[in-house]
Amino acid sequence: MSWTKEMRYRHYREMTEAEEQELLEKVNNSIWRQQFHIQPPYGLLNDPNGFAFYQGKYHLFYQWFPFGPVHGMKHWYHVESDDLVHWEEKGLGIAPEYDHESHGVFSGTGMVKDDLLYLFYTANKRDQNWNRESSQSFAVMDEEGKLAKQEKPIISKQPEGYTANFRDPKVWKSGNQYYMIIGAERENHTGCVLIYKSADFLHWNFEGELKTNFEHFGYMWECPDIFQLNGKDVLMISPQGLEPEGDFYQNIHNSGCFIGKLDLENYYFHSNVFQELDAGFDFYAPQTTQAPDGRQILIGWMGLPDMNYPSDKDMWANCLTIPRELCIIHDKIYQTPVKEMNKRRGSLVEWQGYVNKEERHLENFSGQTYELICDLELENGKAGLKLRTGKQEETLIYLDTNLQKVVLDRTNSGEPVSEGYGSIRQVAYADKKVSLRIFVDVSSVEIFVNEGEFVFTARIFPQEESRGVKIFADDTEGYLDVKKWDMKTSNN
After folding, report:
1. Most buried among 56, 92, 240, 476, using CB within 10 Å?
2. Phi, then psi, of 370 in degrees rounded to 5
3. How do the domains of the chain map onto residue ranges?
4. What's the pLDDT score for residue 492?
5. One of 47, 225, 282, 314 is an active-site residue; which one?
């Protein structure tokens, strides 16, 4: 199907009942629909937006193009939850309405002020020559869930010296002032974030760039987020245009963070290290919020810009990650599944023992949706797990002590995904013991290594019958302790 501009820039209200029914029929027949991840009812999902705790619930929006699995006129779709695990679909949240947002409402964040939830976003417009015009605006949600939009932008355009790639506002309060950072591209095509200040949410003064020690680091910094964690400041960005370096930056675009100190007097973020947030294939545009108990919770887009996925033919694309709690250990971000995910645990099966130069199918472990924990130990060689196995399909996660790496291999995971970017991801790892906590859904795996020291996120597209779990050890003996819980997939 060839998508024209006219097809890509239709408003949701233009969708006919017949179009919606046709979309729903195709989506409902898809063999890859997820069971415990946030996903679109149809069409394309991308960046999480407006993540906030308000009036006793977690509110989360995501970028949504309703008409198909392509990027077009973006809306915000709304879901909410009491517990970060069971999400209720609330439907369309924010839609383009005014001239300055005629071509979509782009990403942004949420902040509670005066018992209202303010949802900041980038308004996107194209002129007659298809040149982009970007401005910043907000909508307000009240206690009854009603949304009202600011009619005019609060920031009408980018400052001098920057392109119209000027988007994704993040707002926070420090002292008596409000601050906003916005992802930007300099006219020399290098990425940065810009900082604004306000006393009232309506009038914003441009303060300049938030300086860092990374002046030439990709051509655009998307989806900036900034927060405090374990007494340190964290600046999170999704830089576009990074070149691969060893095992790092292997995807078309990447996400990561700086840990350091935010200097609001000189607008400088002091940090000398950029840490990639995910070692897998499909992770981008993460956003965080603070839970009532003080935890910093992250949710990311389980997908990437400028990519195609096998589910596209079923007229839907992408999902969000499970929520992850963040902490800092030895100046490194650790990510662990939120404790509430334990509510999803169903029946348990276990296996412990040695595997010596063999492959073994684990009885009673088969399934499409489950949580699995594996503690693995070996001397020299390669040993690990094969997930979603079938006649010709398997997803491998293993420790290779000779290479000194933990490896995720989706070469034979099913329908191929972006093979030009490779089918193997790996992380340097010198120990001979490793702990893996794995969440398997119908078309994804999320693998948390050593209590979140690093994470692999990947979409996989196996056939329905590929449900097996195997353990293996190549030319070595390994000891494995494996526990698997069936996943309760009901939202009740």
Report:
1. 240
2. -165, 165
3. 5-337, 343-487
4. 43
5. 47
